[in-house]
Automatic annotation (TrEMBL):
GO terms for molecular function: ATP binding; ATP hydrolysis activity; cadmium ion transmembrane transporter activity; metal ion binding; P-type zinc transporter activity. One of its GO terms (cellular component) is plasma membrane. It is an enzyme of class 7 (translocase). The chain crosses the membrane at residues 12-30, 36-59, 238-260, 272-293, 568-590, 596-615. SUPFAM superfamilies: Calcium ATPase, transduction domain A, Calcium ATPase, transmembrane domain M, HAD-like. InterPro entries: ATPase_P-typ_cyto_dom_N, ATPase_P-typ_P_site, ATPase_P-typ_TM_dom_sf, ATPase_P-typ_transduc_dom_A_sf, ATPase_P-type_domA, Cation_Transport_ATPase_IB, HAD-like_sf, HAD_sf. This is P-type Zn(2+) transporter. Its main location: membrane. Gene3D superfamilies: Calcium-transporting ATPase, cytoplasmic domain N, Calcium-transporting ATPase, cytoplasmic transduction domain A, HAD superfamily/HAD-like. Residues 121-222 form the P-type ATPase A domain. Coiled coil: none annotated. The lineage of its organism: Bacteria, Pseudomonadati, Pseudomonadota, Gammaproteobacteria, Aeromonadales. Keywords: ATP-binding, Cell membrane, Membrane, Metal-binding, Nucleotide-binding, Translocase, Transmembrane, Transmembrane helix. It is found in: Cell membrane; Membrane.
């Protein structure tokens, strides 16, 4: 748009609208109209005031890109109307075209706001605090790992950091979609992009700005603009060759009188103009992408980022979703769920286990240590620790020979013993004291409560669910029984997961895979739609994924599929609606039953209706 027009566009449009009404009155209602030369002057001035940018754009596209745009259609149609002395009609075509542009900008702005509002969550400075308590404002990129920074009440956290204070109430809605503030305790990592809702807090940076949660999220949003759905790509390719075809057809219509003596040039030129106006592809070019963008905005409100509208289309047609177990269907964190003691008290047995396991970095060992310290049991001094790789640990504690580990390891020193492992989902750690079986600690990875809700919803939609897990057979099958997953693959290596998914794609494509770990990145990338759990997922899995769930609520997966179906159906219905209405008016115009005013409705009216329909995607839930 030209600078003068951009500054006064609404005023200029108002002047042109008044001029059009005056011209309509003089042409159709006035008993003694003003001289025609004045009408022409009024029409030309009003036309140039609002159409200069359209004319410039049409010629630039024609000569620089060597193609005809929708602006070129509008220019030819209005020039033809001027040639036929249809002054108000010529002005009306351009006025309503500009009104359609205003409406499009408003609609696009609303759709964009749902996603771009996340961009505003990246602060421009950080309140860095030194060892003496002095405060200094610096740019986020200047903060190093280990630096302490302060966040005031109501401020956005700029960089991921571990909480230095006892507690903090944090609004995580921008990243997770959860409206209720989350309570963090000392030492927990607080993600950037969230808002401090309580008192002043201090955080110790645990990542650089370029790797922080909000930066990763913004990178995902940028990636989302790169991928286009098949309907969008079709519309873009369609608009390139469509305009020359329309102009050619209009020329043929205008030249009909050369072949039929009874036909009049003025009549057939007007039909050609009607053909040009109604053929403008604006409604088609705008409404389909806007439907997808609105759907992406609606999906972002539930804490899910989709890297491009092409994935909305694939999600809407899913036949199956395969899931990893640990960190996806479960929390990925082992917890003690049962202690059985043969001869000692539970606390004494737990003390032996804690004292020995604190020398190991295995996830199961860490969970026992954490549980024991929560129960505040006594920690004993431990002598030299002997580790049998993959089997267990042993040492001397308070003069007693203590072993902890697998059943085979314990039975090798104290002989065979009987213990019924009741829960197939749990892992069991056995303990012996002085070569006597003393007890067992059961540890399990807790199932997420939202897993069952999500899977029931997917089954109701007719989507098959599959488990592809690296866990042992008993654990994987127990999870499948509990969640009603019919197909189960267990003890899968990363390559095994990839091979399994490749095999499933032959009969169940399109298929999605949902995972969270580094070992899931290859299979996430290979699936038709890769879904990563962004709250605890590895950077590799998130990078490879097409859809990122920014929180731990699995029901967002099924809700995303539902929203994707609604969005895709809306885009397709918009496309058919626009094409059918335009085709009807084109046929009426070709046989002389449609004038230029109906053509204007066929262009701008249909555009407004289609865009209004596309905007419904913003309210999808």
């Amino acid at each position: 748009m030209l600078p003068f027009q951009e500054k006064h566009e609404k005023s200029l449009l108002g002047i042109a609208l008044i001029a059009m009404l005056v011209l309509i009155y003089n042409k159709y209602l006035a008993l003694s109209p003003m001289p025609f030369v004045y009408q022409v002057a009024m029409a030309v001035v009003a036309y140039l005031l609002i159409a200069s940018d359209v004319l410039v754009s049409a010629f630039k596209t024609l000569f620089k890109q060597r193609r005809m745009s929708e602006q070129f259609l509008m220019m030819i149609a209005t020039f033809g109307a001027f040639a036929l002395c249809d002054l108000p009609e010529a002005l009306a075509v351009m006025i309503f075209y500009k009104i359609g542009e205003f409406f499009e900008e408003y609609a696009s702005g609303r759709a964009h706001n749902d996603i771009s509002s996340l961009v505003k969550l990246k602060p421009s400075f950080v309140r860095l605090v030194d060892e003496n308590g002095n405060e200094q404002k610096v740019k986020p990129r200047q903060v190093k790992i280990g630096d302490v920074f302060k966040v005031l009440k109501g401020e956005v956290i700029a960089i991921d950091g571990n909480l230095c204070d006892d507690t903090a109430a944090i609004d995580t809605s921008a990243l997770t979609g959860e409206s209720e503030p989350r309570l963090y305790t000392c030492g927990q990592s607080v993600p950037s992009g969230c808002i401090n809702q309580g008192q002043v807090i201090h955080l110790r940076a645990n990542t650089l700005s370029k790797n922080s949660s909000i930066t990763r999220l913004l990178n995902l949003i940028e990636d989302a603009a790169a991928s286009k759905s098949k309907p969008e790509n079709l519309i873009r390719r369609f608009s390139v060759w469509y305009t020359p075809l329309v102009v050619g057809c209009a020329v043929i219509l205008a030249l009909v009188p050369l072949f039929f003596q009874q036909a009049e040039f003025s009549d057939w030129i007007e039909r050609a103009l009607v053909f040009l106006v109604v053929s403008c592809p604006c409604a088609l070019v705008l409404s389909v992408p806007l439907s997808f963008f609105g759907g992406m905005g609606a999906i972002s409100r539930i804490g899910v980022i989709i890297k491009g509208s092409i994935h909305i289309e694939t999600l809407s047609k899913l036949k199956a979703i395969a899931f990893d177990k640990t960190g996806t269907l479960t929390y990925g964190k082992f917890t003690v769920n049962k202690i059985h003691s043969e001869s000692l008290s539970e606390d004494e047995l737990l003390s032996y286990a804690l004292s020995l396991e604190k020398n190991s970095t295995h996830p199961i060992a860490l969970s026992i240590v954490e549980y024991g310290r929560q129960r505040k049991v006594e920690e004993y001094e431990v002598g030299s620790v002997i580790e049998k790789s993959g089997m267990g640990l042993e040492s001397t504690i308070n003069g007693h020979d203590v072993r902890i580990g697998r059943k085979e390891y314990i039975s090798s020193s104290c002989g065979a013993f009987e213990y019924n492992e009741e829960d197939a989902e749990s892992s069991y750690v056995y303990i012996s004291v002085d070569n006597r079986f003393s007890g067992v600690i059961a540890i399990a990875d807790t199932l997420k409560p939202s897993a069952k809700i999500m899977l029931d919803s997917l089954h109701a939609q007719g989507i098959k669910t599959v488990l592809i897990s690296g866990d042992k057979k008993a654990v994987a099958e127990a999870i499948c029984r509990k969640l009603d997953i019919k197909e189960c693959y267990y003890e899968q290596t990363p390559q095994g997961k990839l091979d399994t998914l490749t095999s499933l794609k032959k009969t169940l494509s399109p298929i999605a895979f949902a995972g969270d770990g580094l070992n899931d990145a290859p299979v996430v990338s290979a699936s038709d739609v890769g879904i990563a759990m962004g709250d605890i997922g590895s950077a590799s899995a998130i990078e490879a994924a097409d859809v990122v769930i920014m929180h731990g609520d699995l029901s967002a997966i099924s809700r995303t599929v539902i929203l994707a179906k609604k969005t895709y159906n809306l885009a397709i219905s918009n496309m058919y609606f626009v094409m059918l209405v335009k085709l009807l008016i084109l046929m009426l115009g070709a046989i002389g039953f449609a004038n230029i005013w109906l053509a204007i409705f066929g262009d701008v009216g249909v555009l407004i209706l289609a865009v209004c329909n596309a905007m419904r995607a913003l309210s999808f839930k």
